[in-house]
Amino acid sequence: MFRKKEINDEQTLDLSRIPNHVAIIMDGNGRWAQKRHLPRIAGHKRGMETVKTITKAASQLGVKVLTLYAFSTENWKRPEQEVNYLMSLPGKFFSNFVPELVANNVSVNVMGELDQLPEETQKVVLKAIDDTADCDGMILNFALNYGSRREIILATKQIANEVQSGNLATDDIDSAVFSNALMTSSLGEDADPDLLIRTSGEQRISNFLLWQIAYSELYFTDELWPDFKASSLKRAILTFQHRDRRFGGIKQNK
Ligand code: FPP
């Protein structure tokens, strides 16, 4: 009989099988605030504190890349006041958290169309990348003004241009060429997430890393992002460790 493997908090993580790349759709800030009769931006503020907690926890567990969906290409549709607040968050975050990032040997990376962000946001983000450039531990990779369909269109245009200019033959377009043209290419062999987490009970991908999650394990939790804790991350990783990843093949030793 098929039985679902039980996960409980007493189980310990196998530190030799920590996912290299964890990506998170941080959802539920608005609902967290609404439940407390607070404005939505109070949820984003609290969500930013969760980013700090989870960054430290992931780095201490040995995660190599932590990708966080901080602002999507669709988030511009939100009320102006909320968009402005979201644009101010990187400044608030980096203004006091960079020393802790450095202490944890974490470097900052950003993917998305940065040139469309307010100048001040671009400035603080580029400064954080610069300030942490010597860190060679975990990469904290923010998706900012990121949308996966847009990323795929940009990659396609880039490849088409290379073909048109005679630098690439159509027959040579393969997965590696395509991956190299995506915004995750700088992450090298860790470009594809091993584990994708979405908080708040929604079970969809919302235009996030569509190419890169082809073989990712998906983990959905009802917890709202501001309530997500280091123990929640461990639970997600424990669940990941109980999954059989076959990448389209068959299980070995069976
Ligand atoms: C989704 O929740 C969350 C966002 C669109 C923003 C996420 C941003 C943070 C968690 C802070 C980022 C921090 C830095 C440093 C950039 P929602 O507002 O859609 O929640 P709801 O579905 O409950 O309304």
Structure description:
By secondary structure, the chain is an alpha/beta fold. It is 40% helix and 13% strand. The chain has helices at 29-35, 40-61, 80-103, 119-131, 148-164, 175-180, 230-241, and strands at residues 21-25, 65-72, 107-111, 139-146, 195-198, 217-220. Strands 3-4-2-1-5-6 form a 6-stranded parallel beta sheet, sandwiched between helices. The longest helix has 24 residues, at 80-103. It is globular.
CA-atom Rg in angstroms: 19 Å
Q: What is the CATH homology-level superfamily?
A: Decaprenyl diphosphate synthase-like
Global outline: globular
Residue windows where pLDDT falls under 50 for at least 5 positions: none
Q: Please identify the structural class as seen in this structure.
A: alpha/beta
CATH topology: Undecaprenyl pyrophosphate synthetase
Strand order of the largest sheet: 3-4-2-1-5-6
Quaternary state, please? single chain
- Please describe the biggest sheet, giving its number of strands, its sense, and whether it closes into a barrel: 6 strands, parallel
Q: What's the number of domains?
A: 1
